[in-house]
Design a protein that fits this description.
Rossmann fold, 494 residues, UDP-N-acetylmuramoyl-L-alanine:D-glutamate ligase, alpha/beta
Amino acid sequence: MYILNSKDIYKMEEAVKRDYNISEIVLMENAGTALFDFIKNKADKKSKILILAGPGNNGGDGFVLMRHLAANGYNADLYYPEQNNKYGDAAQVNLNILNNLNINIHDLSTLNNMEQYDIIVDALFGIGLTRDICGIYKEVIDKANNTNALKISADIASGLISDSSEVPECVFKADYTITFSTLKYCHVLYPAKTYSGKVITANITIPDNILSQYEHNIFIDKYNKPVLKSRPQDSHKGSYGKVAIIGGSTEMAGAVKIAAISTLHSGCGLITLCHPAELNRNFISDIPEIMTKSFTYNEPALICDYINNSANVYTIGNGMGRQKNVKEFILYILQNTLKPVIIDADAINAISLNELNNIQSEVIMTPHLAEFARLINKDISEIKKNKVSLAKEFADKYNIYLILKSAETIAAVPNDKVYILNTGNTALAKGGSGDALCGLTASLAAQGYSAKDTCILAPYILGKSAEKAVKKHNPAYLSITQIINYYNEVFNEF
């Protein structure tokens, strides 16, 4: 599913009109019809429907919707700004049609008793809005948000900024958004996403091959995710890769253990957990399938030899701590190994941008927002505002595959695109979820998935597992190891 910014959407629509003679009135008709097709499956003829039509083209979509509702016998009212509007030709044509048909429409300033409506359709403002909503529009949106009506937005929830994850002071809080042709960034990035409700993309007859010509990123769902590899009957443990997991400390042994469990239950053939000698091997004795190898921090070359000769992929950082000797050990390993690496947790905190240039192997890095902010020397508030662009810039500049963890997951592929995932829930808002993702990522990489597919599949599987888990358990109750138990159900759905 494509995600375009507003600038490119306008360019694309102009090209469609210019090169293919698909006029604006046709696009508006298709948008209004898409709204009607959705609403007729949510409402019966007794439902009271309110359309809030704005002063621009988004209002025109509302005019088309009103015509279809009236023509099909639905109980609908439309309110729009009679005096204060700037309708283009297509919207004005559709407003004139309503007047010619004597369909009863009203001035927005006369709207009251909003509580009587079962459904409220927001066709106030679209992707052109870049300012805070105020005046009568703010009053109307505030009142609508306080009703119990089912709330539906046309294209984007009024008040949201199409290209931004931020939430202005006044935003229509939709239960559903029917968006046209392509997703917008406010539909997939938190916290703006929470105001969109469930987003449904409607085809308004702009061909896919035209959409793909414009700069875009990709939203991942069950329809476009990478496929899982088959497991041939004559395969063996060596067929599914060898992962070395480097990490742990006496204070945080659980982190590296969770990473190992996640690696084990996602298909990897052989797993060796490399841990500091002071961490007794018994901490992993309840999982006999996982091998162990101890190390001391003054002998990093021994671990490098093991990785280079006995692993396909390794991870480093989980539960290691931030002491000086630990940091030196991590940097030595990263600079003297040739196998693909997943850099997580304390290894992210140990490294600087300059030191990234000394890593010879393929890198997947899995920071959360605070770790990423420290790494690229930005304030976390700036990261939150510009997650996609900063992730893309980092991946391209340093040739690193980035899985940026937050309420959504942003997978940035060097010299490719950004892939955004919304799988998961608050059950993952606990210590250990990042360790599980790290192990899952290593397992997939070791099994031969490309780095790109690994960066998409790992957060997809973890998020879907959390979704499966909350169907049976409260998210507050669930542990990360319980969520790992649901990998099986997710794999069975591929």
